[in-house]
Structures are given as structure tokens and as C-alpha cells.
Design goal:
Elements lengths: L28 H12 L5 H10 L3 H4 L8 H11 L1
Amino acid sequence: MNLGELKWQDQAACKPYPQEWWFPNAERSSHQYAAARAVCEQCPVQDECLAHAMAHEEPHYEYGMWGGLAPRQRRALRRAVT
């Protein structure tokens, strides 16, 4: 992966927050995803973030909040577009 591909991350609203917010554990997932989603909704690069996660089928991108969508939502989106 080219570092230029990730330049959009410099503008991400999530940048100042702890990474754990976007990769919640099972015990706190619904609360953490809600908090993360609220930040994502205000993000100027939300579309780029989601596109990046959808384009990479690596395990790292199968977990956590990306582009305002939780893993289950991204899987549903993948099924809908294929």
C-alpha cells in the first residue's frame, strides 16, 4: 500500500481520539460504536475511510468502525453491491 493512499487520514475527525474507540471489545461494543459513529458523522473524509475499508479485505479492515459503519453494516453493504 502506498502511503499517498492514506493521506486522507490526516484530515480524519478520529485522529485525536484513542484508537480503541474504533475497535471496541465485545463487552462495550454498542456504546463504543455509538460514540465512534458520532465522530464519524462529522468527519470530512468519512467517504474515503469507508471506501478504503471496503477496498481492502484484510482482517484488520474487517473489524472496528470505518467510515461510520460497523463490521456487520459493511458486510451487508458488500453483499448488496456484489
